[in-house]
Amino acid sequence: MKKRAEYGENDLMESFRGGDETTLAFFFDLHYKSLCYFAVPLCQDTQQAEDIVADCFFKLWQNRTEFQTAQNVKAFLYISCRNASLNHLRSLKRRNAAQELYFSQLESGEETILYQIIETEVLHILSREIEELPTKCREVFKMIYIENKKTDEIADLLGISVKTVRGHKARAIELLKSQLLKQGVSAVTLLAFLFLIDRP
Amino acid sequence: MLDTEFHISTLIAAQIQGTITDAQRAELAVWLDQDPKHRLHLEETYREQVLNEKLKRYERADREAIWAKTITKIQANNVEQGTATVRMLYPYKRKLAIVAAVAAVVCAAVLFFYNDAIRPSQNVHKGYQNDVAPGAQGATLTLTNGKQIKLSDATTGQLAEEAGVRITKSADGELIYEISGSDKKLNSVNTLSTAKGQTYRLRLPDGSAVWLNAGSTLTYSANLNRSYDGKRYVMLVGEAYFEIAENKARPFVVQSGTQEIEVLGTQFNVNAYADEPAITTTLMEGAIKVTDGRRQRILKPGQQVANANGNLQLATIEVDNVIDWKDGDFYLNHVNFKTAMRKIARWYDVEVVYDASIPDDMEAGGWISRDKPLSQVLKSIESSGMVRFRIEGKKIHVIK
């Protein structure tokens, strides 16, 4: 499995280093949401955060010959985003309470930032899984879980019956969990086991 | 850089989605135990309501605005440098093209590997020309931190030192656990699993011995302790023979599905394969109690309880039929034919295909060593004149 994945990635990285702008677009689409999610709270300013994110992709493109793996690209983007946010906060004459908090955390090299990276990456994975759902399913799922819309509201908006909305919702959850079912008994029993053994 | 963070995030995402594997769960447990802040992060950040809000915020980024800013920066720089302006296309259509290209490469690779893998079996041999070697000693040990040790490859001596536990492999291949340090943090979870065609023997820290048959998994914590009652506790999927060291103060519990077997010190066999119609527990020595929900049976030596969906059926049986595998044999006298074939399939890692003419209630017969190649086992069964076999790659066809 790994070999195949690496083959695809090597190809991609070679195009990237060679200056193929479609690969920049590929990385952009893969990471722009994560970087915004990461930078907006640090800057406490959406416009500023967008500038910083764009700047990170610009720097990535300038240094494109340096990157060996897609994960290097991702790490570079996060680190430059963190540094640029720190520089921005440093340049401000006045900082609000939240900015002050992030600034002191960033300056002291606090690990909070690492938790923010983990959180962002988790959302990245979940978001991509949701995107893979069949179209109608995905629309319904997003409306319920992300936009907090009610079932009848969604039925109205999409022009389908309440029953169909419920069907899509159930199917979305089923698809997201289907891996669990495939794994079958072992995952479930191990979970039970972990609850039973003693904890420190 | 950030490798750990990226890796942990995949584990957490898998946990949220419910797709986490046993090994990943063990890895995540290690990370959580490293620092109370880690656990706090997990517990606080991904609660359902919070998570919806976060996903909403995650999806809010303005793609067009940021892309436009990015291109502007790049083109401005190109002009400054005097390099030709790169034609920066709007990414949508190009993105599809590259996704398709990557997909095509992957497909080609899959086809390539797949073809390679199936080539040998394209030569269809009739009869016994392509024989199957018997299974052997071997297993995979998965430690709490996700580290996997292939025991067939591992040399003897010390394999791992986990919080207070030393794991060694003896000269004759037995896996031995010894409690060496203080008894803190001994709740690390280990999993010993055998593939089809493998068998393994291990000695637990309380001195109990376990023989694991092919295609089986034993899960246990290093101190074997169950939190709420202090009993010794393991979980089994597949088949194992237990020789439990006596400790009246701490009974030993084997769980398979919803069934629990409780013992003080004794020898018994548990067959809990998913493809068998019932979990069978057979007692050789001592006394054991088998419980499933509210139903309960106490066994005497030579008795077997078959648990089909919580229905416990007690019978006196031929013990040799049950522990044959542990002694390296197939003992097939008065054994249901298809049950016997399932035993064989697990050991030789083959699939059995029955002709429609083979009835369900036929009995096998005979006795043969498991060291022999598959052909000899099949020949000994064939000698009864009831059935004939044809081996084709990893498939055994059974005909009248």
UniProtKB/TrEMBL annotation, chain B:
Q: Give the matching InterPro entries.
A: FecR, FecR_C, Ferrdict_sens_TM
Q: Which residues cross the membrane?
A: 96-114
Limits of the FecR protein domain: 191-289
Molecular function GO labels: sigma factor antagonist activity
For this UniProt record, give its keywords in alphabetical order, as a comma-separated list: Membrane, Transmembrane, Transmembrane helix
Q: Which domain of life is it from?
A: Bacteria
Q: Which residues form the Protein FecR C-terminal domain?
A: 330-398
What Pfam family does this protein match (any one)? FecR
Identification of the protein by name = DUF4974 domain-containing protein
